[in-house]
Design brief:
alpha+beta, 3 domains, four-stranded antiparallel beta sheet, two-stranded antiparallel sheet, 6 strands, coiled coil, RND transporter, transmembrane, lipoprotein
Length: 484
């Protein structure tokens, strides 16, 4: 009969807890999640492109196809400090998953303790101890030592999946960090390749200046001879001499740029300043392969920054669930078993020194839940913010590709025209020099023709560099580089 009464009380207590939980559950606020708009146009231009062939499918080594550049990038992927820093962040995010996972598993601890206690004789405990004999004629020890050893466990029951959602959130944050690392790899490869092509362009500019100086020095010698023969004046000599000084000064400026770009590459490779190996002789003649952009929807899976924003959005959704679970009761079970005695020789005596306990707790917020409400509202605001970040990243990716596609087309048209300009001015230099030597053209015609030819060659090199940089940017905008 007594056993029946105990079970009945237990049943009523459990029913009351469940009822209270349901009441508190109904009092928890609820808001609709904002969904992200991921719809993109079918193509990047007015003409709809349905071809899914995408240059991003090429491994970066196959895309660049330059042994010196590949060596530089390989070194950077190992030694770049910023990349190594973010790799440690990835490791920390992975450790956070393990920490969150451990929170919804039972905690089991082992402990041992020793203490000495002296209580006042005129207290209830002291008076009782004074009147207690351990054995006939043997009083209770004073001061009283106490020794204990045992195993203790606690377990928070994850009824509302708060802890599991917290672990899933940590997984999303980890995946977001991995994509952040991938995005850094893409940008690092792009930055090294761009600097490499800038270096090659500077080498060609320096070579053009050297060639032009050779022509100008020859012209200067010619006009000096003409002056001696009274067929030219000192004015022509000084004007050509000034142009030589100008180009000599420009040569040193280009040499300084070469040093700075080399050291920029060295910094990205995590090494001290040194020569950067490259082959620049065939820079102008380099053929450019066709870029295939695929379809815009491929950006959602290829771009690491879009995937990172997507994982951040998923983490924000889980954060709302975690914040909402704070409105509900939490259930905890605590238990312990061990031995305790005032003398070490009694410590393992059983059952006299055996102790154990089992406790079940339920705690729920009842009054003044403002902090919980504020955190829940903040979680919802962060989710909306993550939606806008995701949409912004998608839109930015689409516009970057569309702009670069137009840039590549216009640069190709510009390069063709500049190539024709260089060819025409190169021919005019030969004609002008012949006329000048036969006194049928003055020094100003020689000077202006050489100056125009120099500028056109410099512009051609600059346009070729911009073409190569545009290809690198397009590869990065499409999401290439991070795949192994």
């Amino acid at each position: 009969m007594n056993n029946y009464k105990f079970n009945n009380k237990t049943f009523r207590l459990g029913s009351a807890c469940i009822l209270a939980a349901l009441i508190l559950n109904s009092c928890a606020p609820s808001k609709d999640l904002k969904e992200a708009n991921t719809v993109l146009p079918e193509g990047y231009q007015e003409t709809v492109i349905t071809d899914s062939l995408n240059t991003v499918d090429l491994n970066w080594k196959a895309f660049f196809n330059d042994a010196d550049l590949i060596t530089l990038i390989d070194s950077a992927l190992v030694n770049n400090q910023e990349l190594n820093i973010i790799l440690q962040k990835v490791n920390m995010s992975e450790n956070e998953i393990q920490a969150r996972k451990g929170e919804y598993l039972p905690f089991v601890n082992v402990g041992a303790a020793a203490e000495v206690e002296k209580v006042g004789r005129y207290t209830s405990q002291g008076a009782n101890d004074a009147n207690t004999d351990i054995r006939p004629g043997e009083e209770f020890p004073e001061p009283l030592p106490n020794y204990g050893v045992g195993v203790f466990a606690s377990w928070e029951l994850d009824v509302w999946k708060k802890l599991r959602n917290s672990k899933k959130e940590a997984v999303m944050e980890y995946l977001s960090t991995v994509e952040g690392k991938n995005f850094l790899v893409t940008n690092l490869i792009s930055e090294i390749a761009s600097s490499y092509y800038e270096l090659q362009a500077l080498d060609n500019k320096l070579a053009i200046i050297e060639q032009n100086l050779k022509l100008q020095n020859n012209g200067l010698k010619t006009i000096q001879l003409q002056k001696q023969a009274a067929r030219a004046t000192e004015l022509g000599v000084q004007r050509l001499q000034a142009e030589v000084f100008k180009n000599q000064s420009e040569r040193y400026a280009v040499m300084q740029e070469i040093v700075e770009i080399e050291n920029k590459i060295n910094f990205l490779l995590g090494r001290t300043p040194q020569h950067v190996n490259r082959r620049s002789e065939e820079f102008i003649e380099r053929e450019l392969d066709t870029m295939y952009t695929g379809i815009p929807s491929q950006l959602l899976s290829n771009r690491p920054d879009i995937r990172q924003a997507e994982y951040e959005l998923e983490a924000a959704k889980l954060d709302i669930k975690v914040a909402k679970a704070n409105f509900y009761p939490s259930f905890t079970i605590k238990a312990g078993v061990g031995f305790e005695a005032f003398n070490l020789k009694y410590l393992t005596a059983s059952p006299e020194s055996l102790i154990y306990n089992l406790v079940g707790d339920m705690v729920a917020p009842l009054i003044n839940r403002n902090a919980i409400k504020a955190e829940y509202n903040n979680a919802n605001a962060r989710q909306v913010q993550a939606v806008f970040e995701y949409e912004k990243t998608i839109l930015n990716a689409y516009i970057e590709v569309a702009n670069e596609l137009s840039n590549i087309e216009n640069l190709q048209k510009s390069y063709n025209l500049k190539d024709q300009q260089v060819e025409a001015l190169t021919k005019s230099i030969d004609i002008t020099n012949k006329l000048f030597k036969s006194a049928r053209a003055d020094y100003m015609e020689v000077l202006l023709t050489q100056r125009d030819a120099l500028e056109s060659k410099m512009d051609l090199v600059e346009t070729k560099k911009n073409q190569l940089l545009a290809r690198v940017s397009m590869y990065r905008h499409l999401g290439g580089g991070w795949q192994n």
